[in-house]
Structures are given as C-alpha cells and as structure tokens.
Amino acid sequence: MKQTILLGALLVALIGLVALPWFAPYFYIFIVTEILIMGLFAASFNLVFGYTGMLSFGHAAFFGVGCYATAMTLLHLKWPFLYCLVLSVGAGALLALVIGFFSVRLNEVYFAMLTLAFGMMVFSVAHHWRSVTNGSDGIAGFTLGDFGLGLDLTLGNPAVYYHVVLVFVVVAAAVLYLIGRSSFGMILQAIRQNPERVAFCGLNVRSYRLAAFTLGGAFAGLAGGLMAPFLRVASPEMLHWSTSAEPVLMSILGGTGYFLGPFVGSAMFILLETWITSITQAWMLFLGIVLALMVMFFRRGLLGTFLDWWLERK
Amino acid sequence: MSGFGAALLNSLDIGLLLFVIAVGLNIVFGVLNVINFAHGALYMLGAYLAYTLINLVGLSFWPTLLLAPLGVAAVAVLIDRLVLRFIYQRDVADSLLLTFALLLIINESVRSIWGSGIHVVEPPPILQGTVRVFGGPSYPIYSLFVILVGLLLLAGLWYLFNRTRVGRIMRAAALDRDMAEALGINTKRVVTGVFAFGAWLAAVGGAVAAPMRAIDPGMGDKIIIESFIVVVIGGLGSFPGALIGALALGLMHGFGGRYMPEINMLLPFVGMALVLLFKPTGIMGKGATA
Q: How far from the centroid of its chain's Cα atoms is residue B111's Cα?
C-alpha cells in the first residue's frame, strides 16, 4: 500500500518535471536544471558515503574534472555534446581510480584527510597550470553544437537543455539505484556496516571500496559535464573543497539512508541558496551552521526522518 | 652562506612552524579520536586575532603573542562544550562532518568580519631587518626567530609529555580513556583541555606566522592540507612522526622552491603518495588499515 503511494508520488513528480517548461517561467527552469545536476552529483557522493560508508571531502575533484573535460573538448575540438559527456564520465572515473588507489586502503579518518588533500591538489593544478586550464579565469567561450546520434536539438535553448539534463539525470539515477539494489550494492552496504565480517566472508574489501569510489567519480564526472554548458564556464572553484562540501551537505540534508535523499537535499539546498544569497553574502556561514545542526540533531535528514516516521506508522 | 644554506634555513623555518601546527592536530586526534578539519581555520583565527590586536587595538607584538592564542583556546573550549559534546559517543563520520561544518563556519565568519583582502602585520623592531648567518648573504631575523620558537615548543612539548603529570594524564587518556576514567581521572575535563591545547598550538603558529605570511581567508586551507600531508607522512598520532613529516615537508619547500619551482607545489603530494605506497600508515605510524 505504502509502496504504491510512494511510487505514485514519484510518478507525479516525474510528470511534473517533464511538463515544467510548458507552465513555468525561465527562472524556474534554470533552478530545476541546477537541482537535477547537483542532485546527481550528490547521489554519486552518496554511493560512496551513504552506501559504502566512506566519507569523501574531495568529491568536487571528479565533478570539476568532468566539467573541464566537456568545456575543453567543446572549446578546442568542437565535439558533439554526447561524446563530450562520455569523455567527462571517463575523466571522472579515471581520476577517482587514481586518487582512490591511494585513499581506500586506510581507515575512515585517513580516507577523509586524503580525499580532501588530493582534491585540493587537483584544485591547485587547475589554478596554477595557466597554459592548459587558463588559471583562475577558467575555460569559457565554448559553444554547444550538435548533440550527436543525428538528433536535431537546439541545445542553446534553456528548455531543450533542461529536457536533455532531465533525461540524463533520470537514466543515471535509475542506473545508480539498480547498482544499489544489485548484489554488488548489497556488498557495499555490508562493508559500511561491518568491513571485517565482509573480509572474513572471503571478499576483497579494498577492491570493492575502490570500485565504489571509481563509480562515484564516474557519475560525478557526468554531473560536471552537464554543468559546463549550464554555467558556460569551467573554473577552479568547482574543484575547491567548498564545492566538495555541497554534496556532503545535500546528502545529510535529505538523508543518506534513502536513495532519493540526496536529490531532495539538492532541491532544499538550491532553493535555500537562491533565497539566502538574495538576503546576505554569508551563504557558506549559513551552510556550515545548517550542516552542524543536522549532524547534531537530525542525522537521518529531512526525507529520511519523514520516511522513517511514515513507514513505521500503522 | 650559499644558496644551499639559505634553502636549509628556509626548510627549518617552514618545517618547524608546520610541526607546531601539525602536532596540535595529532594531540587532539590521540585523545579525542577526531581529526579536526577546523584546525587550519583556528590557525587562521590566531593570525587574524594577532592582526587585530597589533594593528587595530595598538598592542605591541609580545603581549599579542601571548593573548591571541589564548583567545583562540577560549573559542575552542566553547566549541567543545557547545558542539563536539554531542557526538563523542557517535560514529567517527559524525565527528568528521561536524568539524568540517566548523571549518565552513569559522572560514566564513573570518571573511565577513575582516573582509577577503590581504592584511599585513609588521614584525617588532627588534626582529626586523636581516643578519649575516655563517658569514654569508643576509637572512631575515624574523625567520630565525620562528626557528627559535619552533625549537622551544619542540623541547617544551617533549618535556610536557615525558616529564610532567599533566603530560602523563594526556597520554593515559590517549591510550585508554575508560581505564583512565576508572583510575579517577576526569576525562571530560581532559578532553576539553586537550582540544583547547591543540587549538592553542594552531593559534601560536598563526600568531607567529602573521608577520611573515600574507593574512587572508585562504591561509587556513593551505595549512590544513599541509598538516594533513605531515601527519600522513609521519604517521597519525605520532609525536616524532609529526616532527619527521614537518621537516620533510619543510625540506621539499625549502629546496624545491629554490631548485625546481615549477613542480614545487606538487612535491608534497608526490611525497605523500610515495609514503602511502610503501608504508601506508606513515613512517612512524602503526595500524590503521581498513
């Protein structure tokens, strides 16, 4: 019964998202595009944190590298958009494989430190390597051409781009969801709960952790690739640890225990950001306070707390 | 003095300052089992308080060196009492998240109070200018002063941990907190004290660094990353490890900055990766594999 209600609510939300450009003004299309992309970014982080139990403070590295990959191929090679995104996924996965190789072998405290440190290394490289990354100005001035596959889409139109993002995010989210439900995903959750026991069952915990981290990097790369044409720039700030803080906060805000938590968190986050930054400059201060309060008193997140309560209820 | 000598002094200057900060991180981790992500922010707070006391209040350098770190230690006591108290019994991820939130809060508070521009503090007259070391080209007196402060703190910390009752209580609490409690030690007070002491060390670093480094809202980020590299290279929770790691990083900066400036920035990360490959728990570390 409750399953049916939840599925129905999800379906209504999805129909609303598809129909959005026909009734909402451009301002809301921009906001929802951002919510979708950042939601995917947060969900890719939650595969690493919520499922596998590895708290990464450097997830922006993969998001940012995906953004740079798409921006630079659009600028220099003028590839169709779809191929740029494939490259972004590959770039995010490859970087995550390298950073993960060094980071997943140690315990949680080390993992948190190492991901932050390696993430900032990527930031420093983007910031200082002017001849390739154009330093603090970032990569700008690229234009969207074809989509690829012979599809005739006017990607420059925000409503069309919104639908492209919606399709990518929904498909990617479905894949992430299926990964979480698969036997592979079950093992990841078992690793979060008790890594020693998983190791005793004869599984190589380190390989599974590295696989989860690499997958998380791949999806973060996709989110970054989708972000490049939306922002029209790829800048070092997207690699900074304060960008890594965003999926952390979104996941905690929505709840790390449910698959849709990061997406709900992303919506809350972007709406709050839009509202708060119109009042004050100190958005990050607000962010820190909300994160602290959520961790102290609301660890299950908003969606998590609600679903816990609702599903328990007779 | 040759370029080699100058590079060596630079290495000591950077390394010992980094030691003071990283050892604070290590001490807090030893007792609280928490890596304080806001440690670099507390270092920055020390520098900004020093700037305020010297340039805005009009205090001279020496009382500032005493007062600014104490102010930060007081902030740390508040943080421990009001915030960290809630999560000591919880999963380690929660403590990481919470100190990460503190990092955001302190960083942004600093930015809104003091602005995002660069501030400068003059060293006191007696420490200004340069001096000829070993009969070679001249070297800034203030950098020699930083080396002296680092050596004094190194000796002081060694004495504290090995020769005093307070130091033994801290080590007991780090080894086994339940046992220490059973033996009549007020571990809650020890935890608060250790957290404040770690913050004090970070802020001493900040106050000492104020006259020679640009004071801006990004200075904490840089130092926390370097401190992490130090403890990863040296081994988390190890006192000699912090010294070895800090001096190694100092050498990379001192000599890397002189002989290979293009890749100087990447050297610490390469060093860290090498240590992780061959001795994942750090040079002096033991047992932390997943």
A: 21
